[in-house]
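Kindly inspect both lines:
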Amino acid sequence: MEVTKIETIPIATKLPEGRGMGDSRGFGRTRETTLLRIETDDGTIGWGEAFAPGRIAAATVDELFRETVLGMDPFDVESLADRSYTDPYHFGGSVFVQSCVSAIDVALWDIIGKTVDRPVHRLLGGEECRTLTPYASTMYFTEANRSLDRPIRDAVEEGFTAAKIKIGSGFQDDVERVRIAREILGDDATLMVDMNGNYRPRQAVKTAKAIAQYDITWIEEPVPPENESGYREVKSRIDTPIAAGEAHYGRFAFKRLIDDRVVDIVQPNLGRCGGFSEARLIADMATTENVAVRPHVWNSGIGMAAAVQFAASVSSYPHTRNVPEPMMVEFDRSENPLRSEILETPLDPSGGVLDVPQGPGLGVSVDRNAVERYRTNRG
């Protein structure tokens, strides 16, 4: 078996004027990413996602990877991540290189799973896993005036028992947003907050101490991702766990987070961290050092499916059934047809339970008509 075709497919969608949404760093109306379709000589097709703009991803694949991947045996997939650091030398640490490696890697694992008729999470060494706990990623900052409580009420009505909300726009606003979320979710629900790196350490610490009374499971990106000394300062001054990783890519960036103990939870994104091969290495490093792993997801339906397969494979070490801490997967609740429409059977988080696809590979089927509707390089 060998790879005979590689196709990069940029897709995008845009919210109407005035309906932008985002985080403490600003609003946006456009969602875009790049799908990758790989086909082998026996007709097996695999899908991946590069969490990067289409033109950049396409150029990177063409310039650095097409010649290597064409003719490649999909079962050699784990060599790709290693080679990305050495050939092309000096470029392996680039976010765009790692995003493209991610897409190729995930697509090849999808092909392997289809070839051996097993879901990827079983191939990665995980036990059989049927369900995960989804958490609603919600309460975004919006351009249009919207009551703060509506997104959380929507999540509760959908059956979510866990949610992550956006904060990071100022002390008073942070406390009020957290108070409202906890009041609506109830005392037994799991609540996380995301500052999106918008604070200096002292600002993050001030908010963290004020919201600790609301039983926060983790604080995500309290300072910018490149500010490792800031992470250490925040961690030394608060008790709430810290999470990060969506803006990190490749094993070496995550190794620094883990070795330096600057976070309690690492959050690799399967469309950027290097794919399943790197994510498995990251998870092994993290669990060895007793750091938790919870994938970040802000992707299309393909990236979502990859995150679910990865999450289902992660070891629960050191926990046993006597320490209940379910593996949680982020489920963005913003309007995003790239997630909700491009799969023939979209993943469904309603009822507070997310079924892990048990079919071969990623376990999902792509709706090619929907992909073409959102494709940006037609013709």
